[in-house]
Amino acid sequence: MTTNQAQPRFSSILQTWGLPIALLLIGAAMSFAHPAFLTTTNLINVARQVSINGILAVGVTLVLLTGGVDLSLGSVVALAGVVAASLAQAGAYPVFIVVAAGVAAGACCGAINGVVVTRGRVPSFIATLGMMTAARGLALVVSNGRPVSNLSPDFTRLGGDLGRLPIPVIVFAVVALLAWVVLKHFRLGRHIHAVGGNPEAARAAGIRVGAIGMIVYTACGALAGVAGLVLAARTTTGQPNAGVGYELDAIAAVVIGGTSLSGGVGRISGTILGVLLIGVINNGLDLLAVSSYYQAIVKGVIIIGAVWLDRNRQHS
Amino acid sequence: MPTPPILEVNQLTKSFAGVRALVDAKLVVEAGKVHVVMGENGAGKSTLMKVLAGLHTPDSGQILVQGEPLHLRNPHDALRRGIAMIHQELMPFLDLSVAENIGIGREPCRWFPGWIDRAAMHREAETLLARLGVPIDPARRMGDLSVAEMQTVEIVKALGHKASVIIMDEPTTALSAREVTALFQVIEDLKKAGVAIIYISHKMAEIFRVADTITVMRDGRHITTRPAWLLDESELIRLMVGRDPVERAIKKPTPGETALEVRDLESSGKFHNISFTLKRGEILGIAGLMGAGRTELAHAIYGLEPADSGEIRIHGKPTHIPTPAVALAAGIALVGEDRKRHGFVPKMSVRENLTLSSMKRGWIHQRAERALADEQIRAFDIKVSSHDQPVEKLSGGNQQKVVIAKAVLTNPDILILDEPTRGIDIGAKGEIHALITRLARSGMAVLLISSELPELLALSDRLLVMREGELTAELDPLHTTEEEILRHAMPV
Question: Which of A72, B146, B208, B226 has the most beta carbons within 10 angstroms of its beta carbon?
Answer without folding.
Answer: A72
